[in-house]
From TrEMBL:
Name the UniProt record assigns to this protein: Dehydrodolichyl diphosphate synthase complex subunit NUS1
GO terms, molecular function: ditrans,polycis-polyprenyl diphosphate synthase [(2E,6E)-farnesyl diphosphate specific] activity
Places the protein is found: Endoplasmic reticulum membrane
Pfam name, any one: Prenyltransf
Pathway in which this enzyme or protein is active: Lipid metabolism; Protein modification; protein glycosylation
Gene (UniProt): Nus1
Catalysis performed (reactions): n isopentenyl diphosphate + (2E,6E)-farnesyl diphosphate = a di-trans,poly-cis-polyprenyl diphosphate + n diphosphate
Record-linked SUPFAM superfamilies: Undecaprenyl diphosphate synthase
Source organism phylogeny: Eukaryota, Metazoa, Chordata, Craniata, Vertebrata
E.C. code: 2.5.1.87
Predominant localisation class: endoplasmic reticulum
Subunit structure: The active dehydrodolichyl diphosphate synthase complex is a heterotetramer composed of a dimer of heterodimer of DHDDS and NUS1. Interacts with NPC2.
Length: 236
């Protein structure tokens, strides 16, 4: 089952971000690639859940770019007020900006697919895929999937005995093409994921951090290291 692990016992949280030194970007890129390869296991799908009232676009963009840099294939961003989703273009602009600043000449290797974008020409063939989610993609999506299944039964295209985990997964639109999250980083003082994909986090490792504001790469990587070292028993 999902585990809500407090940050205090696993690693220290740093309030201030370190000032970048000249020439440090290239060293950081090399370090991020090396860090990703060094981990015993790396999440395929990472969820970034903000429970704080005032989310930071810049800090969230940094987290997304770090996920891309270490080799995480799927990233979900969620806040319980739906602020990131309503202001999707602002977040995407910040991510593109930090791609260039943090990844520099390697930016083309880490193109991100904006899975929520309406314009097809803005969706890039890429290594990492991002979805921006809100509460309507949680319980509401399950209700919609149930309604769609009932409609199929009424139209005699399905029978009630057809309903199983795989069928429901296929009916859910919020994570279409995404595997279930392996790891969720939950930011803020609330000991809850506040509606983040309740169906998909049955076996997800959840690590709690005090805040996403001014988060450092060291805190991010410490969480990945904690995940890599944990033993997942899959309910056994």
């Amino acid at each position: 089952c999902a585990l809500l692990a407090p940050a205090a016992g696993a690693f220290a949280f740093r309030k201030a971000r370190r000032r970048r030194r000249p020439g440090g970007a290239a060293q950081s890129r090399q370090r991020w690639r090396s860090d990703g390869r060094a981990l015993q296991k790396l999440p395929v799908h990472m969820g970034l859940v903000v429970t704080e009232e005032e989310p930071s676009y810049a800090d969230m963009a940094s987290l997304v770019v770090w996920c891309m840099a270490v080799g995480i294939s799927y990233v979900s961003v969620y806040d319980h007020n739906g602020i990131f989703k309503r202001n999707n273009s602002r977040l995407m602009d910040e991510i593109l900006k930090q791609q260039q600043e943090l990844l520099g000449i390697d930016c083309s290797k880490y193109n991100v697919e904006f899975a929520n974008q309406d314009k097809a020409d803005q969706v890039l063939n890429c290594q990492s895929t991002l979805k921006v989610l809100s509460p309507e993609d949680g319980k509401a999506d399950i209700v919609k999937a149930a309604q769609n299944f009932c409609q199929l039964v009424a139209q005699q295209q399905r029978t009630y005995t057809d309903l199983d985990v795989n069928v429901l997964d296929n009916l859910l639109s919020s994570t279409d093409g995404f595997p279930d999250p392996d790891l969720v980083l939950k930011f803020g003082p609330v000991d809850s994921t506040l509606g983040f994909l309740p169906w998909h986090i049955r076996l997800t490792e959840i690590i709690s951090l005090p805040s996403h504001l001014n988060i450092s790469y060291e805190d991010f990587f410490s969480a990945l290291h904690h995940y890599a070292a944990c033993e997942q028993r899959w309910g056994k």
